[in-house]
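Form 7-S
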Amino acid sequence: MNKMLTITEVAKKLEVNPKTIKRWEKAGKIKKPKRNYRGWRVYDKSDAEKLIIRHSN
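Output:
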């Protein structure tokens, strides 16, 4: 099973605030993530890695 990361975990890896990731999503800079049963944003490991690579460039 693929490990899912929360927006907080991804934000920590990117060294940004979770609100920044939400703004990127709203602006269409990144695709909308999946939601878990609670409605929270979750990112699979490959999506999170793509965000990290994109942000580091």
